[in-house]
Amino acid sequence: MSTQYTTRHAIHPADSKSYDTTKLREAFLIEDLFLQDEVRMVYTLYDRLIVGGAQPAAGPLQLETIPTLRSENFLDRRELGIINIGAASTVTVDGKVISLQNKEALYIGKGVKEVIFHPADSGKTQFYFNSAPAHHAYPTKKVSLEEAETVELGSLENSNHRIIRKVLINSVVETCQLQMGLTELQPGSVWNTMPAHTHDRRMEAYLYFDLPEDQVVSHFMGEPQETRHLFVKNTQAVISPPWSIHSGAGTASYSFIWGMAGENLDYNDMDKVAPTDLK
User: Fold this and answer.
1) Quick one: pLDDT at residue 268?
2) pLDDT tens by residue, 142-177
3) Residue 266, pLDDT score
4) Residue 199, marked binder
5) With respect to CATH, is domain 3-277 assigned 2.60.120.10?
6) Is 9 annotated as a binding residue?
7) Extents of the domains making up the chain
8) Is the pLDDT score of 264 beyond 90?
9) Interatomic CA distance for residues 155 and 146, integer angstroms
């Protein structure tokens, strides 16, 4: 089969405090999201977000429904956000071919019957996607980097000079609850999302990419007064519960995609935690 999926259950913060390294990684780290000629996904019980990756090479790959959804088509009751992290390629949505350059995004609304990922003419093709339950059908829309809401934050002095590109948020495209964007750490900077924050109204997922294969990111998670860390490699993802901070520092500069689902569409809805208050 070209589609593989697993399920991750929600974890109570009190339980996570007792996890050793192996159990922490099993619960929150997605290590094998991209495999050639497969669509791979993790169905999480955090706001029922699906985290997925497609890597077509020998031929096209169709986004198929999975037994857990109990639906004829994947998007019968869901919306989908795709960001291309590989070579320029195309996605077919109900017969319409849409080209996506590296880091361009595509929103696909509830009710679409067919989504097909195509291999690039040259180079590795990798499509990253998030999907959340949807109550309304909004139209499919491609978002280029020029159309994204872009913010430059931080400084080299604090090792967190970064560019945030909000591609699939409510100021750019209409969605039910899904929001996605990408953050690019600039050369010499390694810290992301610092000061850290939580937001009980929604969960989040991070995909780290553009990271040299011999380098890693230390992703910090957990309650602000009870933090833990995960060492993450290129094109690996982290599931971040609503009660957890989500921050990281790499051994080299990198990019990451953030995706959110939950109670609201307010990007600035967060409970900030000062660095000196973390433990």
Assistant:
1) 82
2) 999 999 999 999 999 989 999 999 999 999 999 999
3) 83
4) yes
5) yes
6) no
7) 3-277
8) no
9) 23
User: Has 246 been labeled as part of a binding site?
Assistant: yes
Max CA pair span of the chain:
53
User: How does pLDDT run across 63-114, given as a tens digit for each residue?
Assistant: 999 999 999 999 999 999 999 999 999 999 999 999 999 999 999 999 999 9
Q: Does the annotation list 219 as a binding residue?
A: no
SS (H, E, C) the chain: CCEEEEEECCCCHHHHCCCCHHHHHHHHEECCCCCCCCEEEEEECCCCCEEEEECCCCCCEECCCCHHHCCCCCCCCEEEEEEECCCCEEEEECCEEEEECCCCEEEECCCCCCEEECCCCCCCCCEEEEEEECCCCCCCEEECCCCCEEEEECCCCCCCCEEEEEEECCCCCCCCCCEEEEEEECCCCCEECCCEEECCCEEEEEEEECCCCCCCEEEEEEECCEEEEEEECCCEEEEECCCCCCEEEECCCCEEEEEEEECCCCCCCCEEECHHHCC
